[in-house]
Amino acid sequence: MSIVEEGAEQHIRMAYLAIVASVSVNGVAELHSELLKKHLFRDFYELWPKKFNNKTNGVTPRRWMAWANPALSNLITHALGSEGKGWVANLVGQASGDGWLIDMSKLRALSKFADDASFRTQWSAIKQTNKEHLAEMVKRDCGVEFNTNALFDVQVKRIHEYKRQLLNVLHVIHLYDRIKRGDTADWTPRCVLIGGKAAPGYKMAKRIIKLVNAVATVVNSDAEVDGLLRLAFLPDYRVSAMEVICAGADLSEQISTAGKEASGTGNMKFMMNGALTIGTLDGANIEIREEAGEENFFLFGLTAEEVENTRGHYNPAGIIAADEDFKRVMHLLESGHFNLFEPGIFDSIIQSIYSPGDPWLTAADFRSYVQAQREVATAYRDKEHWTRMSILNTAASGKFSSDRTILDYNRDIWHLPHIEAKQS
């Protein structure tokens, strides 16, 4: 617990200093806060248990709904302001339902419209228009054409091994392999978009970006795959791009190794805009699943506790050898199928997947991820049910407003007398 790190040259342990000097210490999601207390700062928690608390992150609905998705926001406002007149009639009248923008708990009332067929039709039409806008951006920025009737499967965030863009690419290769083998019965067309930036010195992250683009080149130029699968990497991922992406996404990829993501906020932006989440029990995913209901969330993978218990006896080579689909994916990678003119360029990635010391446990979660993605594909073919789940996700997203987060901070930590959530 010493603030000074002893050794040949002394160093200040800045995190320890911050804990000692602060009146309050919090994680930014329930799981994160528990990990701080049980592992990283356990001694400090035992000394000062009242100093530690949780404050789950949030994002502002004014930016990530009203601004990014005005058509959907207007539909919600009219529906919540119908006051018994019926939401359809209210579309031509004066809406009084915009209070949800500064009190997101009011979105809960939206759940009753999930069983309204005409409301689902309007919801789906708005999503389709948003997908057209996203497809235009992908065509302009990536040179790849997305079929707007396909499932839009999106993962946009910093490129990092723990966020496991690699697992996503392995699944794309698996789908490509299925198509090439003719295994396309009851196929759900899918357009996969991956975007994000790598730190300047992060070689492996840059190599993963290279792999995404290499796989995309092969997949998108294969006539047998046309209409069934597309992959694009979005360059220069930025806030203005996310405003288009979160409104147009069908599926939100939140697939980090359990216990590694502090919270994340992209998952919240997607949820607010009606995207369904496929994810691990990590960061705020846990609370998103609790709010939306487990039946409206596609769960896979090891838990944080299981991840820790796997350390020391992890055998990815054995996992791959026992899984025919995984073996075929790795064969394509190892044979240079995606890098014929750059032999060996992906060797470091291949080695990381096979490594017993892989801290991200990519191989361990592959089969569970593939199974969850099959459930996604099946669910998407039932458009009415998918739309119902989409509405229920938006209706359950109120907890993840930054207004709630700020009020929590003020109630428990700041104690400022006049702070209140205001429309920004």
Describe the structure.
It is a single chain. This protein is α/β, with parallel strands linked by helices and 424 residues long. It folds into two domains: 4-54, no CATH class; 121-400, Glycogen Phosphorylase B (Rossmann fold), CATH 3.40.50. The protein is 50% helix and 9% strand. The chain is built from 19 helices and ten strands. The strands form three sheets. It has a six-stranded parallel sheet with strand order 7-6-5-8-9-10, with helices on both faces. Strands 1-2 form a two-stranded antiparallel ribbon. A two-stranded parallel sheet has the order 3-4. α9 links the parallel β6 (190-195) and β7. α7 packs across α18 (383-395) and α8 (165-180) packs across α15 (324-334). Mean pLDDT is 94; it is low at 83-95.
Q: What name goes with the CATH superfamily of the largest domain?
A: Glycogen Phosphorylase B
Share of residues in helices: 40-55%
| Low-pLDDT stretches | 83-95
| Helix-strand makeup class | alpha/beta
Per CATH, the class of the largest domain reads: Alpha Beta
What fold name stands as the CATH topology of the largest domain?
A: Rossmann fold
Shape: globular
Overall structural domain count: 2
Number of helices: 19
- Rg (C-alpha, Å): 23 Å
Q: Tell how many strands the DSSP assignment holds.
A: 10
- SSE order: EEHEHHEHHHHEHEHEHEHEHEHHHHHHH
Named CATH architecture of the largest domain: 3-Layer(aba) Sandwich
Give the percentage of residues in beta strands: 5-15%
Q: State the major sheet.
A: 6 strands, parallel
Terminus-to-terminus distance: 42 Å
Average predicted confidence as pLDDT: 94
Kindly report the spatial arrangement of strands forming the biggest sheet: 7-6-5-8-9-10
